[in-house]
Amino acid sequence: MIANRSPRRRMAVGFVVSAILGIAPVTAGLEAGASDAPLGSANVRAVATGIRMPLYSHAGEDVEAELPYSLSELGAGGVGHALTTIAWPGDTGGHGGSTVGVLSGSLPAPVAALLGKLTPVVNALNDPYKAEAPTTSGQPKVSLSNPGLIMQALALPTHVNASSAVGPTSLSSFKDDAGPLVSATTNVVQGANSVTVDARTAVTDISLGPLYIGSIVSTAHATTDGTHSSGTTQTQISGVKVAGIGVTIDNNGVELANKGVLPASVYAALSKTVASALKTIGIESHFVPSTKSVAGSQVSLDSGVLVLALNNRGYQRTVNDTGSVLQFGGASIRMTASPGYIAPAITPSSVAPGTSTPGGGSIPSFTQPP
Q1: Is the pTM of this model over 0.90?
Q2: How far is it, in rounded angstroms, from Cα 14 to Cα 77?
Q3: DSSP characters for 57-86?
Q4: According to the per-residue pLDDT averaged within each range, which of 50-59, 94-103, 304-313, 345-354 is highest?
Q5: C-alpha separations of 170 from 125, 140, 213, 335 in Å
Q6: What distance separates the 2 farthest-apart alpha carbons in the chain?
Q7: Are 125 and 97 in contact (CB under 8 A)?
Q8: Which residues are CB-neighbours of 183 under 8 A, at least 6 positions away?
Q9: What kind and span of H or E run contains 10?
Q10: Which residue among 56, 182, 252, 363 sits deepest, i.e. has the most Cβ atoms within 10 Å of its Cβ?
Q11: Residue 94: exposure state from Cβ atoms within 10 A (0-12, 13-18, ≥19)
Protein backbone atom coordinates (compact mmCIF):
# COMPACT_ATOMS: atom_id res chain seq x y z
CA MET A 1 0.00 0.00 0.00
CA ILE A 2 2.82 2.40 0.91
CA ALA A 3 4.68 1.70 -2.29
CA ASN A 4 1.53 2.41 -4.32
CA ARG A 5 0.95 5.76 -2.58
CA SER A 6 4.50 7.06 -2.96
CA PRO A 7 4.20 8.25 -6.60
CA ARG A 8 1.08 10.26 -5.75
CA ARG A 9 2.80 11.81 -2.73
CA ARG A 10 5.79 12.74 -4.86
CA MET A 11 3.51 14.38 -7.41
CA ALA A 12 1.65 16.33 -4.69
CA VAL A 13 4.83 17.64 -3.11
CA GLY A 14 6.21 18.61 -6.51
CA PHE A 15 3.01 20.53 -7.32
CA VAL A 16 3.11 22.47 -4.04
CA VAL A 17 6.76 23.46 -4.49
CA SER A 18 6.09 24.48 -8.08
CA ALA A 19 3.18 26.64 -6.95
CA ILE A 20 5.32 28.38 -4.33
CA LEU A 21 8.01 29.13 -6.88
CA GLY A 22 5.36 30.48 -9.22
CA ILE A 23 3.93 32.81 -6.55
CA ALA A 24 7.32 34.34 -5.68
CA PRO A 25 7.74 36.43 -8.86
CA VAL A 26 4.09 37.54 -8.61
CA THR A 27 4.66 38.89 -5.07
CA ALA A 28 7.85 40.61 -6.15
CA GLY A 29 5.99 42.20 -9.04
CA LEU A 30 3.33 43.57 -6.69
CA GLU A 31 5.92 45.07 -4.35
CA ALA A 32 7.94 46.59 -7.18
CA GLY A 33 4.91 48.14 -8.84
CA ALA A 34 3.21 49.45 -5.67
CA SER A 35 4.83 52.88 -5.82
CA ASP A 36 3.77 53.28 -9.45
CA ALA A 37 0.17 52.31 -8.80
CA PRO A 38 -2.52 54.86 -9.64
CA LEU A 39 -4.63 56.41 -6.92
CA GLY A 40 -7.32 54.10 -5.63
CA SER A 41 -10.11 55.31 -3.36
CA ALA A 42 -10.12 58.63 -1.50
CA ASN A 43 -12.35 60.11 1.19
CA VAL A 44 -12.06 63.86 1.65
CA ARG A 45 -13.90 66.44 3.75
CA ALA A 46 -12.89 70.12 3.62
CA VAL A 47 -14.64 72.87 5.61
CA ALA A 48 -14.15 76.65 5.70
CA THR A 49 -15.96 79.17 7.91
CA GLY A 50 -15.45 82.94 7.97
CA ILE A 51 -17.23 84.00 11.17
CA ARG A 52 -18.80 81.63 13.66
CA MET A 53 -21.25 82.92 16.25
CA PRO A 54 -22.14 80.37 18.96
CA LEU A 55 -25.47 82.02 19.76
CA TYR A 56 -26.63 79.36 22.18
CA SER A 57 -24.82 76.40 23.71
CA HIS A 58 -26.10 74.39 26.64
CA ALA A 59 -26.12 70.69 27.56
CA GLY A 60 -25.12 69.59 24.07
CA GLU A 61 -27.72 71.68 22.21
CA ASP A 62 -26.45 74.52 20.11
CA VAL A 63 -27.57 77.26 17.77
CA GLU A 64 -24.89 79.04 15.82
CA ALA A 65 -24.38 81.22 12.79
CA GLU A 66 -21.55 80.49 10.37
CA LEU A 67 -21.02 83.36 7.91
CA PRO A 68 -20.29 82.03 5.35
CA TYR A 69 -19.86 78.25 5.33
CA SER A 70 -18.41 76.00 2.61
CA LEU A 71 -18.17 72.21 2.56
CA SER A 72 -16.63 69.95 -0.11
CA GLU A 73 -16.74 66.16 0.16
CA LEU A 74 -15.43 63.49 -2.21
CA GLY A 75 -15.76 59.79 -1.53
CA ALA A 76 -14.97 56.46 -3.11
CA GLY A 77 -16.41 55.87 -6.54
CA GLY A 78 -16.43 59.58 -7.38
CA VAL A 79 -19.32 60.48 -5.07
CA GLY A 80 -19.06 64.23 -4.50
CA HIS A 81 -21.01 66.72 -2.43
CA ALA A 82 -20.68 70.52 -2.34
CA LEU A 83 -22.62 72.81 -0.03
CA THR A 84 -22.10 76.52 0.55
CA THR A 85 -24.15 79.29 2.10
CA ILE A 86 -23.75 82.81 3.40
CA ALA A 87 -25.44 81.80 6.68
CA TRP A 88 -25.32 78.27 8.05
CA PRO A 89 -27.14 77.54 11.33
CA GLY A 90 -24.98 74.66 12.47
CA ASP A 91 -26.02 71.09 13.15
CA THR A 92 -28.94 71.80 15.49
CA GLY A 93 -29.63 75.44 14.76
CA GLY A 94 -32.40 75.23 12.20
CA HIS A 95 -34.19 78.12 13.89
CA GLY A 96 -31.10 80.14 14.68
CA GLY A 97 -32.42 83.33 13.09
CA SER A 98 -35.34 83.56 15.50
CA THR A 99 -33.01 82.94 18.43
CA VAL A 100 -30.85 85.97 17.63
CA GLY A 101 -33.57 88.42 18.63
CA VAL A 102 -34.11 86.66 21.95
CA LEU A 103 -30.40 86.53 22.83
CA SER A 104 -29.28 89.91 21.54
CA GLY A 105 -30.34 91.63 24.75
CA SER A 106 -27.80 89.62 26.77
CA LEU A 107 -24.88 90.26 24.40
CA PRO A 108 -22.36 93.10 24.73
CA ALA A 109 -23.39 96.25 22.87
CA PRO A 110 -20.69 95.97 20.15
CA VAL A 111 -21.71 92.38 19.39
CA ALA A 112 -25.39 93.28 19.33
CA ALA A 113 -24.57 96.14 16.95
CA LEU A 114 -22.71 93.75 14.64
CA LEU A 115 -25.70 91.39 14.64
CA GLY A 116 -27.91 94.34 13.74
CA LYS A 117 -25.76 95.04 10.69
CA LEU A 118 -26.01 91.39 9.69
CA THR A 119 -29.79 91.14 10.20
CA PRO A 120 -30.57 90.19 6.55
CA VAL A 121 -27.98 87.44 6.74
CA VAL A 122 -28.94 86.18 10.19
CA ASN A 123 -32.64 85.98 9.26
CA ALA A 124 -31.67 83.48 6.57
CA LEU A 125 -30.75 81.01 9.34
CA ASN A 126 -34.40 79.98 9.65
CA ASP A 127 -34.33 78.71 6.07
CA PRO A 128 -30.72 78.58 4.90
CA TYR A 129 -30.22 80.12 1.49
CA LYS A 130 -27.70 77.72 0.07
CA ALA A 131 -26.15 76.34 -3.07
CA GLU A 132 -25.83 72.56 -2.93
CA ALA A 133 -24.75 70.08 -5.58
CA PRO A 134 -24.50 66.33 -5.00
CA THR A 135 -23.26 63.94 -7.69
CA THR A 136 -26.01 61.45 -6.88
CA SER A 137 -28.90 63.70 -7.94
CA GLY A 138 -29.78 67.13 -9.23
CA GLN A 139 -27.55 69.51 -11.16
CA PRO A 140 -23.75 69.14 -10.89
CA LYS A 141 -23.40 72.94 -10.70
CA VAL A 142 -25.59 75.34 -8.73
CA SER A 143 -24.85 79.06 -8.78
CA LEU A 144 -26.75 81.75 -6.87
CA SER A 145 -25.85 85.41 -6.73
CA ASN A 146 -27.22 88.81 -5.78
CA PRO A 147 -25.53 92.20 -5.55
CA GLY A 148 -22.58 91.68 -3.24
CA LEU A 149 -23.27 87.96 -2.88
CA ILE A 150 -21.84 84.90 -4.62
CA MET A 151 -22.61 81.26 -3.86
CA GLN A 152 -21.47 78.40 -6.11
CA ALA A 153 -21.43 74.64 -5.65
CA LEU A 154 -19.84 72.20 -8.09
CA ALA A 155 -19.84 68.41 -7.66
CA LEU A 156 -18.23 66.18 -10.28
CA PRO A 157 -16.71 62.71 -9.83
CA THR A 158 -13.20 64.20 -9.77
CA HIS A 159 -13.76 67.84 -8.78
CA VAL A 160 -15.77 69.36 -5.93
CA ASN A 161 -15.87 73.09 -5.17
CA ALA A 162 -17.94 75.16 -2.74
CA SER A 163 -17.51 78.94 -2.63
CA SER A 164 -19.34 81.82 -0.97
CA ALA A 165 -18.45 85.49 -0.69
CA VAL A 166 -20.33 88.41 0.84
CA GLY A 167 -19.18 91.86 -0.24
CA PRO A 168 -19.83 95.28 1.27
CA THR A 169 -22.38 96.25 -1.40
CA SER A 170 -24.95 94.00 0.30
CA LEU A 171 -24.13 95.45 3.73
CA SER A 172 -24.20 99.20 3.32
CA SER A 173 -22.92 99.90 6.84
CA PHE A 174 -19.48 98.56 5.95
CA LYS A 175 -16.85 100.50 4.08
CA ASP A 176 -17.18 100.41 0.31
CA ASP A 177 -13.43 100.10 -0.21
CA ALA A 178 -12.95 97.15 2.13
CA GLY A 179 -13.27 94.46 -0.53
CA PRO A 180 -15.05 91.19 0.36
CA LEU A 181 -16.30 91.17 3.92
CA VAL A 182 -16.22 87.39 4.30
CA SER A 183 -15.46 84.51 1.97
CA ALA A 184 -15.08 80.75 2.29
CA THR A 185 -13.89 78.32 -0.37
CA THR A 186 -13.17 74.59 -0.37
CA ASN A 187 -11.81 72.76 -3.39
CA VAL A 188 -11.03 69.08 -4.03
CA VAL A 189 -9.40 67.83 -7.25
CA GLN A 190 -8.69 64.14 -7.84
CA GLY A 191 -6.32 63.17 -10.62
CA ALA A 192 -5.10 59.81 -11.84
CA ASN A 193 -2.32 59.60 -9.24
CA SER A 194 -3.15 62.10 -6.48
CA VAL A 195 -5.71 64.24 -4.68
CA THR A 196 -5.24 67.94 -3.92
CA VAL A 197 -7.39 69.71 -1.33
CA ASP A 198 -7.62 73.37 -0.36
CA ALA A 199 -9.71 75.23 2.19
CA ARG A 200 -9.56 79.00 2.63
CA THR A 201 -11.51 81.63 4.47
CA ALA A 202 -10.99 85.38 4.69
CA VAL A 203 -12.59 88.02 6.92
CA THR A 204 -11.87 91.72 6.43
CA ASP A 205 -12.77 95.05 8.01
CA ILE A 206 -14.40 94.01 11.30
CA SER A 207 -15.18 96.57 14.01
CA LEU A 208 -16.31 95.74 17.53
CA GLY A 209 -16.31 98.94 19.51
CA PRO A 210 -12.65 99.85 20.13
CA LEU A 211 -11.45 96.61 18.51
CA TYR A 212 -10.71 96.71 14.78
CA ILE A 213 -9.45 93.77 12.71
CA GLY A 214 -8.06 94.45 9.24
CA SER A 215 -8.09 90.84 8.03
CA ILE A 216 -8.02 87.24 9.18
CA VAL A 217 -7.06 84.65 6.56
CA SER A 218 -7.08 80.91 7.30
CA THR A 219 -5.76 78.32 4.85
CA ALA A 220 -5.29 74.57 4.72
CA HIS A 221 -3.68 72.61 1.88
CA ALA A 222 -3.09 68.86 1.51
CA THR A 223 -2.07 66.33 -1.15
CA THR A 224 -1.81 62.54 -1.18
CA ASP A 225 -1.02 59.79 -3.67
CA GLY A 226 -2.62 57.14 -1.47
CA THR A 227 0.69 56.23 0.17
CA HIS A 228 2.45 59.49 1.02
CA SER A 229 0.79 62.77 2.03
CA SER A 230 1.69 66.34 2.88
CA GLY A 231 -0.21 69.22 4.42
CA THR A 232 0.12 72.80 5.66
CA THR A 233 -2.22 75.12 7.54
CA GLN A 234 -2.07 78.57 9.10
CA THR A 235 -4.05 81.64 10.14
CA GLN A 236 -2.73 85.15 9.55
CA ILE A 237 -4.17 88.11 11.47
CA SER A 238 -3.22 91.62 10.39
CA GLY A 239 -4.24 95.22 10.86
CA VAL A 240 -5.52 94.78 14.44
CA LYS A 241 -6.09 97.92 16.51
CA VAL A 242 -7.52 98.58 19.95
CA ALA A 243 -8.58 102.18 20.54
CA GLY A 244 -6.52 103.10 17.49
CA ILE A 245 -3.37 101.46 18.87
CA GLY A 246 -1.74 98.75 16.72
CA VAL A 247 -1.62 95.35 18.43
CA THR A 248 -0.92 91.73 17.54
CA ILE A 249 -2.98 88.70 18.51
CA ASP A 250 -1.28 85.32 18.62
CA ASN A 251 -0.46 82.48 21.00
CA ASN A 252 0.78 85.06 23.52
CA GLY A 253 -2.51 86.95 23.57
CA VAL A 254 -2.93 90.64 22.78
CA GLU A 255 0.36 92.55 22.64
CA LEU A 256 1.43 95.91 21.32
CA ALA A 257 2.85 95.88 17.82
CA ASN A 258 6.55 96.78 17.58
CA LYS A 259 6.82 96.63 21.35
CA GLY A 260 10.58 96.08 21.12
CA VAL A 261 11.22 99.63 19.87
CA LEU A 262 8.92 101.47 22.28
CA PRO A 263 10.27 103.25 25.37
CA ALA A 264 9.22 101.54 28.58
CA SER A 265 7.03 104.43 29.71
CA VAL A 266 5.23 104.60 26.36
CA TYR A 267 4.78 100.82 26.29
CA ALA A 268 3.26 100.84 29.78
CA ALA A 269 0.87 103.67 28.95
CA LEU A 270 -0.30 102.10 25.69
CA SER A 271 -0.72 98.70 27.31
CA LYS A 272 -2.93 100.27 29.97
CA THR A 273 -5.02 101.97 27.30
CA VAL A 274 -5.48 98.72 25.38
CA ALA A 275 -6.42 96.75 28.49
CA SER A 276 -8.91 99.42 29.55
CA ALA A 277 -10.51 99.57 26.10
CA LEU A 278 -10.98 95.80 25.95
CA LYS A 279 -12.42 95.79 29.44
CA THR A 280 -15.09 98.29 28.44
CA ILE A 281 -16.61 95.87 25.94
CA GLY A 282 -16.33 92.95 28.37
CA ILE A 283 -14.66 90.66 25.84
CA GLU A 284 -11.53 88.58 26.23
CA SER A 285 -9.62 87.31 23.21
CA HIS A 286 -7.38 84.31 22.70
CA PHE A 287 -5.92 82.53 19.71
CA VAL A 288 -6.32 78.80 19.18
CA PRO A 289 -3.21 77.64 17.27
CA SER A 290 -3.24 75.48 14.16
CA THR A 291 -2.93 71.70 14.43
CA LYS A 292 -1.51 69.27 11.89
CA SER A 293 -1.40 65.48 11.69
CA VAL A 294 -0.04 63.69 8.61
CA ALA A 295 0.62 59.94 8.74
CA GLY A 296 0.92 57.94 5.53
CA SER A 297 -2.28 58.49 3.59
CA GLN A 298 -4.17 60.12 6.47
CA VAL A 299 -4.31 63.89 6.87
CA SER A 300 -5.96 66.01 9.57
CA LEU A 301 -5.52 69.80 9.44
CA ASP A 302 -7.11 72.61 11.45
CA SER A 303 -6.13 76.23 11.01
CA GLY A 304 -5.85 78.64 13.91
CA VAL A 305 -8.97 80.43 15.14
CA LEU A 306 -9.35 83.80 16.87
CA VAL A 307 -11.88 83.46 19.71
CA LEU A 308 -13.62 86.35 21.46
CA ALA A 309 -15.21 85.25 24.72
CA LEU A 310 -17.50 86.92 27.24
CA ASN A 311 -16.32 86.40 30.81
CA ASN A 312 -19.72 86.60 32.43
CA ARG A 313 -20.98 83.80 34.65
CA GLY A 314 -24.63 84.64 34.07
CA TYR A 315 -24.13 84.55 30.30
CA GLN A 316 -22.24 81.24 30.49
CA ARG A 317 -24.81 79.67 32.80
CA THR A 318 -27.96 80.63 30.90
CA VAL A 319 -26.97 81.29 27.28
CA ASN A 320 -23.61 79.87 26.29
CA ASP A 321 -21.66 77.51 28.52
CA THR A 322 -18.56 77.92 26.31
CA GLY A 323 -18.44 81.68 26.86
CA SER A 324 -17.47 82.13 23.20
CA VAL A 325 -19.17 85.03 21.43
CA LEU A 326 -17.34 85.17 18.10
CA GLN A 327 -14.82 82.99 16.30
CA PHE A 328 -12.95 84.29 13.27
CA GLY A 329 -11.31 82.05 10.69
CA GLY A 330 -11.32 78.30 10.39
CA ALA A 331 -10.19 75.99 7.59
CA SER A 332 -10.00 72.23 8.10
CA ILE A 333 -9.25 69.14 6.02
CA ARG A 334 -9.83 65.45 6.79
CA MET A 335 -8.52 63.03 4.17
CA THR A 336 -7.61 59.39 3.78
CA ALA A 337 -6.76 57.52 0.57
CA SER A 338 -5.34 54.27 -0.72
CA PRO A 339 -3.24 53.40 -3.78
CA GLY A 340 -4.73 51.61 -6.74
CA TYR A 341 -3.96 48.01 -7.69
CA ILE A 342 -2.12 46.91 -10.79
CA ALA A 343 -2.59 43.24 -11.58
CA PRO A 344 0.79 41.68 -12.48
CA ALA A 345 1.30 39.61 -15.60
CA ILE A 346 1.15 35.92 -14.69
CA THR A 347 2.59 33.36 -17.11
CA PRO A 348 1.57 29.75 -16.56
CA SER A 349 4.48 27.39 -15.92
CA SER A 350 4.89 23.71 -15.23
CA VAL A 351 7.88 22.41 -13.35
CA ALA A 352 8.24 18.70 -12.83
CA PRO A 353 10.13 17.25 -9.86
CA GLY A 354 13.83 16.82 -10.50
CA THR A 355 14.05 19.52 -13.21
CA SER A 356 15.77 22.90 -13.16
CA THR A 357 13.74 26.03 -12.25
CA PRO A 358 14.13 29.62 -13.52
CA GLY A 359 15.44 30.62 -10.10
CA GLY A 360 18.28 28.08 -10.21
CA GLY A 361 18.68 24.68 -8.54
CA SER A 362 16.32 21.77 -8.87
CA ILE A 363 13.43 20.24 -7.03
CA PRO A 364 14.63 17.00 -5.48
CA SER A 365 12.63 13.82 -5.78
CA PHE A 366 10.73 12.79 -2.69
CA THR A 367 10.82 9.25 -1.37
CA GLN A 368 8.26 8.01 1.11
CA PRO A 369 10.09 6.82 4.23
CA PRO A 370 9.53 3.15 5.05
Answers
A1: no
A2: 44
A3: EETTEEEEEEEEEEEEEEEGGGEEEEEEES
A4: 304-313
A5: 17, 27, 20, 35
A6: 109
A7: yes
A8: 50, 68, 163, 164, 165, 166, 200, 201, 202
A9: helix 2-33
A10: 182
A11: middle
